Amino acid sequence: MLLPLLLSLLLILVAASIYAVAATHQPDCSRRIYGITLAVTTVALGTALTHLLTAPAPEMLTLPLGLPWLGAHFRLDALSAFFLIVVNLGGAVASLFALGYGQHEKAPERVLPFFPAFLAGMNLVLLADDAYAFLFCWELMSLTSWALVMAHHQEPANVRAGYLYLVMACFGTLALLLAFGLLAGTSGGYDFATIRAGTVTPGFAGLVLALALLGAGSKAGLVPLHVWLPLAHPAAPSHVSALMSGVMTKVAVYGFIRIVFDLLGEPVLWWWGGVVLALGGITAVLGVLYALMQHDLKRLLAYHTVENIGIIFIGLGLALAFQANQMYASAALALTAALFHVLNHSLFKSLLFLGTGAVLTATGERDMERLGGLIHPMPWTALAFLIGAAAISALPPLNGFVSEWLTFQAILISPELPQWLLKFLVPAIGAALALSAALAAACFVKAFGITFLGRPRSPAAAQAQETDRYSLAALFTLAALCLLAGILPGLVVDGLAPVVGLLNGGARLTAQHSQPWLTLVPIVDVKSSYNGLLVLLFMALSGTGAAFLIHRLASNKSRRGPPWDCGFPDANPAFQYTASSFAQPIRRVFGSVVFQARERIFMPPPGDLRPARLEVKLRDPVWEHGYAPIAAAVVALSGRFNHFQYLTIRRYLSLVFGVLVLLLLGMALWR
Amino acid sequence: MALITDYLVQGSQMLLLLLLAPLLTGLIRAFKAQLLRRRGPSPLQPYRDLSKLLRKEVILADSASWLFRVAPYLIFAAIWVAASLVPTFASGLLFNWTADLIAIVALLGTARFFLALAGLDVGTSFGGIGSSREMMIASLAEPAMLMMVFTLSLLAGTTELSAVARFMLTADVGLRVSLGLALIALMMVAIAENARVPVDNPATHLELTMVHEAMVLEYSGRHLALIELAASLKLLLYLSLLGCIFAPWGMATAGDGFWAYLLGVAIYLGKLALGGLLLAVFETSIAKMRVFRVDQFMGAALMLGLLGTLLLFVSRSL
C-alpha cells in the first residue's frame, strides 16, 4: 500500500509547483513552497525506508495515463526504495536549507515553480515501470533542472552552461530511447515486466550496455561525457546544485543499474565489466585532477562529483565482471560498495554544496582566491563543511572511507577472475582508485584551507556573518549522517542487502548486525575487518585523555601574539598561499602531462615599472580532442546545408518526392 | 580474567609505543651524530625537549582559529591509534581486528589532512608551502603504500595485519619477487612519510626545501610537543610495520604468557635499534633531493607497488 501513498505525495509536489506559479509574488511564498517540499519528502523518505526495511514483495500499479495502449506502469521494489531514500533525503535537507537560503533569492519566480517539479521528476523516474513513463519522467527531471540552471540567466556563462546541458541531456535521452527500443525488440512490449521476461541476443545486449553507458553516463558525468556537469551544476542556486550533484547523478546511476543489472538480465559477458571498470577508473582520476585545478568552489565540487561517479562505476564494473563469471558472493561485495558510495556521496556532496551556499550568502563570492578566514565569523558552517571535506576525502572514522574500503576489498578478491585482460586491468584500477583518494584529500585540504582558514583575502570575506539556523540545521543533519554511516557501517550494509539480493540473483553479504561490536566483516573467510565505532572511540579517548592530562599536569596557559613565519610576518593577506599556489606542485607533477600545463613568467627588465606576471595555461584534453572537432563539424555541415533554406517550392516538393521514393525502396529491399 | 589480561596487554603495548617513540628518534640522531664524527646529544634528549615544551605556555598567532588548537590532539590521537593497531611484540591482540592495514594507512591520512590544514590556518606563506608540498608528496606516497598493502593482502588472503604477520611466519611464503618489490616500496614510502632525507630534512628549519617543519612552524609549547611526539610515533609505526611484515620472527602470539611477551619485547627492541641504525646509515650516505624530483622518487615507489600487485594477479606463486 506504499506505492499509492508515494504517488499521491508526488501529486502534492506537482500541485505545489502549480501553486508556485500563481502565488510567486506573495511575500512568504518561498517559505510555503519549501515547507511543503520538506514535509512531502520527509514522508516519502519514511515510506521508502519502511519498504526497504520490511522488504515486502514489489508493489505494482497501472494508471490510465500516457500512451493509451500502454498506460503508465509504476513499481516499488528494493532498488527503487533505496534510491528513493537517497532522493528524498537529499530533497528534504535541501528544502530545509532553502527555508533560510531561499529568502536571499533575487528571482524566486524562476526557482519556486520548478523546484517541487524537479523533485517529483526524480522520484517518478525511480518508480516508473515502463519505458515510456521512464523516459517521460527522465525528461521532466532534465527540463526542470535545466530551468533551474537558467534561473540566473542574465549571466552569459549560465546561458552557455544551460545550452550545453540541454544538448547533452537530449543526447542522453536519445541513447536511452534507442536502448529501450532494442530491449523491447520488434514485439514492442515497452513495460519493464515484458522486457525482463524477454531475452536479447548477446550482440544487441552489448549495444544496450553501450547505449545505457552513453545515456545514463552523460547524466551522471562519466568522462568523456562530463563536460556539461561542471558548468551546469554550479550555475543553479546552491540548494539546487546540491540536488543536481548529490542526487540527480544518482538517479542516472539508478537508470544504469535498472537497465543493465535488472532489465538486461542474465546474458552478461565479461568484457562489459572491463569496459565499465576502465571508464570508472579514468573518470575517477581525471575528475579529481580537474577538481584540483579549479579555484571556483562550486565548480571544484562539481568536478569532484565526476570523480565519485567514477568510484561508483568501478564498483558496478567489478560487479558485472564477477557476475559474468558466476562469482555472485564477490559481486555482492562490489555491488554493496557501489551502492554504499551512492548513499555516501549524496550525503557529503549535498553537505558541501549547501555549505558553499552558506558561504555564497555570507560573502557573495565563490572564488576561493577572494575568500579566506571564514572559520572566524562562521564557525558552525566551517565545522560542518570540515566534516564533509574529511568524509569525501575518505578519512576514517567517517563514511567515505567505508565505501572506499569495501571497494578495495572487492578489488582484492578479484585475482580469481579467469580473464587475463581483467587480471591486468583490475590492479591498475586499484592504483587509480588509490591515487584518486589521495588526490581528493589534497583537493579538500585546498578547498577547506583556502576558503575557511588563513586570513580574509577580500573585504567581503572579512565582513561575513554566520548563516541562519535553518541552513545550519540542514548542514548538521547531513554531517551527523556522515558520521553515523561511518561508525555504524554494518547497519547500512544490512539495509542494502535486499537491493543487492535483487540485482544479484539472491546472493548478498552475510548479515553484519550480529558481528561483535558492530564490526564490518564483509566476507567471513577473508577476515578483513573494520570497526569505525571503535576507531572513533579510541581516537576520542586518546585525544581527550591527552588534552586532559596535559592541561592538568603540565601547562594550560596560552597567549596571543603576531604570527612567527620565520621572523618575516607580513600583514598583507596577499602573501598567503592561494588556491592556485596550493595546487602548483600537483599541477606540475600531474597537470603537465594531462592538461599540458605550462607556466610562463613575465619579468620586466630593471627600470620597467610594470609588475611581474605568472601565467598558467591549461588545456582541457577532452574538450579539445572530443567536443571541439564535433562542434566544428556541426557548424561546417550546417553551413553546407544552409542553402536548403532558400529553395523554391518546386525543389522542396521534388526533394520530398525523392526521399519518399528512397524510403519505399529501402522498405522493399528490407522485406 | 583472560579478558582483563588481554586489556592489560593491549594497554601496555599502547603505553610502550608512547614511551619508546622519543627514544627511537633520539637514538637515530645519536647514530647519525656518531656517523658524522660529532658527539651529539644523548639519545634521551627528545624526552627533555618534550618535557620542556609541555611546561611552556603556548603562543597562538592572532589569526589562529579553533582548528589550530584542536589539530595537535587530533593528529596525536589518529597516529597513536594507528600505531597501536600495528602488532609490535605480539600479534593477535584484543583490538587488532578493529582496523586493518588499509584503515591504518587511512588513519595516517587523517592525521596528515589535519596537519596540512593547521599549516594553512594562520595564513603565512611558510605554512602554505609546507601544506601544499606535503599533499603533493602524499598524493603519490599514499597510493604507493596502498599498492604495497594490496601485494601483502593478496599473498596473505586478508588485509588484517596480525593475520598477515602470522602468514609471513609460515613456510609457504618463501622468497618472492612481489615481496621484494613491496619491501622496497614500503621503505621508500616510509622515508617520504616521515620527512627523512632525501625527501625532506628533519634537521632543517630555515630552508625552502622543508616540508614537514614548515607546516608546524607556528606551533609552540604543548601543541608542538604533541606534534613532535606524533612524528616520533609515526616513525616508530613505520619501523614496527617493516618489522612485523618483513621480519616477524620472535613475535609472541596472544595468550602466550608473561615470559613470551617479555622475550617478544626484547626482540622488538632489537629490531627497532637495527632499523634505526640502518636509517641513520642511509640518511648520512645520501644527499637531499630537489622538491620536484620527489615525484619521480615516489612515482618509482608507486610503480614498484603496482608491479608487485600485478605479478600476484597474474600468478599467486610470484
From TrEMBL, chain A:
Residues 128-412 form the NADH:quinone oxidoreductase/Mrp antiporter transmembrane domain. One of its GO terms (molecular function) is oxidoreductase activity. It is found in: Cell membrane; Membrane. It comes from the Bacteria. InterPro entries: ComplexI-like_HydComp, NADH_UbQ_OxRdtase, ND/Mrp_TM. The keyword Transmembrane applies. Keywords: Cell membrane, Membrane, Oxidoreductase, Signal, Transmembrane, Transmembrane helix. Residues 1-22 form the signal peptide. Pfam families: Proton_antipo_M. GO terms for biological process: ATP synthesis coupled electron transport. The chain crosses the membrane at residues 33-55, 76-101, 131-151, 163-184, 204-228, 240-257, 269-293, 300-322, 342-362, 374-395, 424-449, 470-492, 530-550, 652-670. It is a multi-pass membrane protein. GO terms for cellular component: plasma membrane. PANTHER family: FORMATE HYDROGENLYASE SUBUNIT 3-RELATED, HYDROGENASE-4 COMPONENT F. NCBIfam families: PRK06521.1. This is HyfB protein. The lineage of its organism: Bacteria, Pseudomonadati, Pseudomonadota, Gammaproteobacteria, Candidatus Competibacteraceae.
Automatic annotation (TrEMBL), chain B:
GO terms for cellular component: plasma membrane. The chain crosses the membrane at residues 12-31, 73-95, 101-123, 144-167, 173-192, 235-252, 258-282, 294-314. Keywords: Membrane, Transmembrane, Transmembrane helix. InterPro entries: ComplexI_Subunit1 (IPR052561), NADH_UbQ_OxRdtase_su1/FPO (IPR001694). It is a multi-pass membrane protein. Its main location: membrane. It is found in: Membrane. It comes from the Bacteria. This is Hydrogenase protein. It comes from Candidatus Contendobacter odensis Run_B_J11.
